[in-house]
Fold this protein.
Amino acid sequence: MERRGTRRTRTAGAVTGALLTLLAATACQSTEPSTPDGSRTVTDGKGAQVTVPAEPARVIALSEPTLDGALALGLTVVGTTSGRGQGAVSAYLADKAAGIPVVASVAGPNLEQILTLTPDLILTDGTVSADDSVLDKLAGIAPTVYISPTGADWQTAFTTLGDVVNRAAETEQVLAGYRGRVDEIKAGLGPNTGATVSIVRWGLGQPSVLLRELPPSKVLADLGLRRPPAQDRDGPGHSQPVSRENLDQLDADWMFFGTLGGATSPEGGNTGSAADVGRAASAAMLDNAVQTPGFTALRAYRDQRIVPVDGSAWTSAGGPLAATVILTDVAGAMTAG
């Protein structure tokens, strides 16, 4: 794997100048296949036709869902993004993404760093900032495919990604494994069949809930689990803040409770794997939530059915690997086996 180098901060003008210089210098060193049968034309999530390598070998994934999907398909990823609310790759992907340089954030990509990695395919989507001007600049570096808009069904987006990278059969195999695991867990829910489930992200001073269009909510729906009325609706494509005066909107038979980033934990000092840090941060944040007036009156709290989870998988955007984490957590909490 390539290591991320240390770069000094430049002004926007200097970066643009350096970028144009490097583009000119590498114009004759295209990473796209040189033969007609070495490329394919695909339709991206905006309806645009994009010519891509038949077998991409150096992929940059600029969003959590595209990184999740690329890793699930065993692609070689040479650059990626930090997770939402995190300083590095999403915690639940940290082991699989070890050594991959971070060249973007939710706010946007670092074009100069991406250029130096000589990708042959760039993947992005609506969960990160990528307007047409940014996409045009990325396309000047390598074929760039916008997979899906924000709030898109994760299985549909993953299927699109699989087609773009020419791994449709492997994509269907991953999804078949997901569906099989869903059926297994659903059959074991017993008295929890059809229970209501709340997904809460808690930050210092502000709780929020995930609404039904996001991947974790889709997984719960596949399991036949229901959302409480205040969460059973579509939203802006991410979490919806809840005032402390309306904590009843968090309540359900079960609550899966997460936060983003160990640094947001009041106690701090977490050790262990990145996913363990995520769960520990959520457990510490739950201690903070309990101090909020009204929280201990929630039914999920009184019934001891609040489950601290890795917020990077549960309260952000993801794909099949995040879905696997969610299924595992649900099985551990809500089934007998």
Notes: The longest strand covers residues 197-203.
